[in-house]
Fold:
Amino acid sequence: MSSTNRTIDSNPDFLTRFQNRTSDAFAEAECRGLMLAAKVRTIALVVILVWQIFDNPSSGPEYLLALVEISAFALLGVLQYFVAKYRIHIPVMKYVFVVIDCVLLALVIVIPGLSDDIIMPPAVALDGSRASYFYIFLMQSAFSLRPQLVLWCGLWIVAARSGLLAWYVSKPDVYTNLSLPGQSMDYLLQARPDPNFIYLGFWMTDVMVTLIVAAGLAVVVNQSRRVVESRSIAERTRANLARYFSPNVVDHLSSSANILGGVKEQQVAVLFADIIGFTKLCEHTSPENIIALLSQYHNRLGQAVFDNDGTLDKYLGDGLMATFGTPETGPDDAKNALQCSMDMMAALDEWNAERLSDGLNPIRVGIGLHYGMVVVGNIGNERRLEYSVIGDTVNIASHLEQLTRKLDTPVIVSDSLICAVTAKDASSNLNIDDSPNRHLLNNFSKGEVQPVKGRELGVRIWTLA
Structure:
């Protein structure tokens, strides 16, 4: 017998699908981030525009130029928002908008120097407050969750500021510290008050800071992506494990490395449960109602497995197989299996009460349990790998479940499992009154040895009292 559980690390097809889903998720998050950044930018610029209309100390061409500049960046923000919202060539346009922003801001800084009515000294233009707006573009690019876009933005900021420097230096009256008679501090202090003097050290500092900040933001964005990917893998792994293991076992598996990787022998309790008369039931029930019945059946009995720290190995149509002691054994595996059978019967009684009140026939279930040595490990190929439990113990548990019909009892337990519950050797005479689990064992009566295929001496059984 084997389960349908697969390990993520050994399934390349799963990894490919997972990576594709992760890329799609990041692409969706990128669009939302670009929309949010464009929205915040546009709203902020509209507020600034309204404020400048009523509180701008300038007049004439300078006043109009300031309003046009702000309006241009606001409209560009609106355009960026709709491009991101409607996914219009996002892979390319996000890089194009970075170039447009940087070039447009550089032009905004240069334009006052082209007019005789607006005097803007080169030193003021390069180191003024407008140049600091470049860092807003850097912040905006980080919303995309793309480290490449952040680095691209940083490089274009450097290119734009370098272009500004080259343009101002090309003017006849402008000079830099390289043109001074000497490079001493005295010459530098003498030239510093001149508005046409440009100190290249400030430009170098701006370039270095821009590149450092861009690289740092790119690292932070990349690390954020890795954290999200790791959490996504962990959540998908937990969700996959939760389909088969109880919550506390899932916690243990999630914190362990390669716990399902090796093949080993260990003592395990195996439980089989099956609906009695299911074939006959299907003859008089619609397919939709059969599926609904199986869903309720699996939910109720499967929950009993999880509540008792068991592993849901697989569903077998109208039956199920569960193990107790996988992936790792514990001192209460046999007791948990026995308790699970009782919880299944209680859940079945509750369900049948509901069915009777709805005018439906009750459901009968046969349950077989055995405890013994099994082989546990991964079996399969690279396309499908299953966590398997195989061995004579599994076969005997299945045979005991089938035996419930012959002996007309809902639960049959092997003597080996009862002995494991009482922590006594199978050959000894059991005294249930001496067991700390006698409240559970009192539900069962000792029966005769039953013949089992593959067992020469048969198996002594216990039945539900």
Summary: The chain has 15 helices and ten strands. The two ends are 29 Å apart (CA to CA). The longest helix spans residues 12-55.
